[in-house]
């Protein structure tokens, strides 16, 4: 068996370990979403959709602050969401130099549907994976990684049905 060097180095590689866990959670979240409906977007785009849903029309800068991602990263996500028809841009009436990102009807429908159906299940699965964590942060991360390895998020769901079936 190969040594998990990132885990062995502890706090020195905490950022790498958190990123690894985050990527796994996003991959498994995508698997859950895909089991409910065909979608043209990645689970990583959901924070943009829900931010626009909660905040209303927003600039790239506002979305960047609300989500905690870089502006170039938000711009890439918005461009993809625009390409698949979930958002559109309008000039800010108060300052024509600023573009505001707005959910389309299709974007609102998708966001509301996922908020009502699949997002609560994802939250439940993550809570389940985190339920018995104890100890310091590194111990908890190790327990979370072990829990996810034993039973990924999709297997933690009580319901696994494609929407519309």
Task: Briefly characterize the structure.
By secondary structure, the chain is mainly alpha-helical. Helices cover 59% and strands 9% of the residues. It has helices at 5-8, 14-36, 46-55, 60-67, 71-83, 105-116, 118-130, 137-150, and strands spanning 87-92, 95-103.
Keywords:
165 residues; mainly alpha; Arc Repressor Mutant, subunit A; two-stranded antiparallel ribbon
How are the elements arranged and paired?
Layout: H1 5-8, H2 14-36, H3 46-55, H4 60-67, H5 71-83, E1 87-92, E2 95-103, H6 105-116, H7 118-130, H8 137-150
Antiparallel strand pairs: 1-2
Helix content: 55-70%
CATH topology: Arc Repressor Mutant, subunit A
In terms of DSSP E residues, the strand content is 5-15%
Shape: globular
For the record, give the distance between the C-alpha atoms at the N and C termini, rounded to a whole number: 42 Å
The tally of domains stands at 1
Average pLDDT: 92
CATH architecture: Orthogonal Bundle
Q: Which CATH C-level class is it? A: Mainly Alpha
Q: If you compute it from the alpha carbons, what radius of gyration comes out, rounded to the nearest whole angstrom?
A: 18 Å
Low-confidence spans: pLDDT under 50, at least 5 residues?
none
Q: What's the helix count?
A: 8
Q: Please trace the helix and strand order, writing H or E for each element.
A: HHHHHEEHHH
Largest sheet: 2 strands, antiparallel
**SS content category:** mainly alpha
Total beta strands: 2
* Annotated CATH homologous superfamily: Winged helix-like DNA-binding domain superfamily/Winged helix DNA-binding domain
Spatial order of strands in the largest sheet: 1-2
């Amino acid at each position: 068996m190969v040594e998990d060097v990132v885990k062995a180095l502890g706090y020195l590689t905490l950022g790498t370990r958190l990123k690894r866990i985050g990527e796994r959670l996003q991959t498994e979240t995508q698997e859950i979403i895909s089991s409910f409906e065909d979608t043209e977007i990645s689970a990583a785009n959901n924070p943009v959709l829900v931010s626009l849903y909660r905040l209303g029309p927003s600039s790239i800068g506002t979305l960047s602050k609300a989500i905690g991602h870089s502006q170039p990263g938000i711009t890439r996500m918005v461009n993809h969401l625009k390409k698949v028809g979930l958002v559109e841009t309008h000039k800010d009436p108060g300052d024509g130099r600023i573009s505001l990102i707005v959910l389309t009807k299709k974007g609102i429908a998708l966001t509301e549907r996922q908020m009502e159906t699949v997002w609560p299940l994802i939250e439940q699965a993550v809570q389940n994976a985190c339920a018995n964590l104890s100890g310091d942060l590194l111990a908890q991360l190790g327990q979370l990684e072990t829990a996810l390895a034993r039973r990924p998020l999709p297997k933690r769901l009580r319901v696994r049905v494609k929407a519309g079936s």
